[in-house]
Amino acid sequence: MTVKRGVAVWILGFLTFLAALSLIAVVIYWTRVDVGPNSILRPYLVGDIISSLIGDSRVETYFWISLVVTFIFLGFTCIIAYRKLPPDPEIVKMFVKVGGNLAALREAQEATATQLATSIEDNRKTSQELFKTANTNIEEAKNETLAMVEKQEKTMQKVHRDMVSTVAKVGETGEEMLGALKKHETTLGEVGRLSRQGAAALKGQRAELDDIKIRLEEIEGKLVPPKPKLKSQDNPEKLKGIGPRLEEELRAIGITNIGELITADPAIIDEKTRVSRDMAEHLQATAQLLMVPSIDETDVELLLEAGITSRKELADQDLVQLSKRIREIAKTHIEEGKIPKDENPTIEEISSWIRMARY
């Protein structure tokens, strides 16, 4: 269909060109001093044909005929060139296929989210059981320590009674009293040592419990997946660069959410809205990258400048090569004051982008 239309435009354009040349020739001939509007004109090549059809033609008559024919051919050329073509069936099939792929992707994401939620719930139950066991162990250790202290107090009381009894028995014997006092001192030292050991054991168990709690919090934080900045069902206005007026124009052509914006033809957006084709492609690339979890607007700017314009391109990247490009771009942005130094992505963050883009 496009080839036929091009051939027709070329032929009509050529005929328009010939008619315009004929009109120019008549005007030049008419401007001669010895030629008037009633003079007879026999043009080259087609003069005999015109004379056989309408007889000898005056200059004025030939001028108006050439002018009318030029505008007729020009009008047909414009009509065929700017007539709107019917939608290409291949493009329609492509949209249907893209819609099916998006539906399958949405189902896969929902299944993954359900699986992650189940895993998080299982880990939470495991953590609760672990905390319960740890608290039970601490309570038991506390009871054992209290029992030990109580036993030590009873031992000290018994030692004291023994000492009093010994002193009463020895009477005035100094050496036996000195030996009893040394024995009592040794016993008290042993009791103090046991008390210190019990306190140290309790402190160690408390430190171990705190360490276990910190590790469990880190594990739970790693299991919770980051949320993307954009979802396919979000309004287009949530994307930076799309205001209320542009959103109304997009809704007028059937684009009501981010998913429809990504799958739309940039040429249609260029034709039906104030947005150029390049700007439409930029908005589509930004939306795709913001749908990848853990990527924000600053990260998108770095990725776009690195030449990454789609989720698939990000998923196919080599971690080392992409990290080198991002590091150079981020260094320039930091020097120019576009981004703070603490927002320079690490290799671990870039690895997370690639991994999330592959889901």
General shape: rod-shaped
Give the DSSP E fraction (strand runs of 2 or more residues).
under 5%
Indicate the mean pLDDT: 77
Number of domains: 3
Structural class based on helices, strands and sheet pairing: mainly alpha
Radius of gyration, rounded?
46 Å
What does this entry show, briefly?
The protein has helices at residues 2-30, 47-54, 59-82, 89-170, 174-223, 244-252, 258-263, 266-272, 277-290, 297-305, 311-315, 319-336, 347-357, and strands at 40-41, 57-58. The protein has 359 residues and is mainly alpha-helical. Helix 1 (2-30) packs antiparallel against helix 3 (59-82) and helix 8 crosses helix 9.
Write up this protein.
The chain is built from 13 helices and 2 strands. By secondary structure, it is mainly alpha-helical. It folds into 3 domains: 2-82; 120-223; 236-357, no CATH class. Strands 1-2 form a two-stranded antiparallel sheet. The protein is rod-shaped and about 165 Å long. Mean pLDDT is 77; it is low at 44-49.
Key attributes of the depicted protein:
359 residues; mainly alpha; two-stranded antiparallel ribbon; 1% strand
List the helices and strands and how they pair.
Elements: H1 2-30, E1 40-41, H2 47-54, E2 57-58, H3 59-82, H4 89-170, H5 174-223, H6 244-252, H7 258-263, H8 266-272, H9 277-290, H10 297-305, H11 311-315, H12 319-336, H13 347-357
Antiparallel strand pairs: 1-2
Helix pairs in contact: 1-3, 4-5, 8-9, 9-10, 12-13
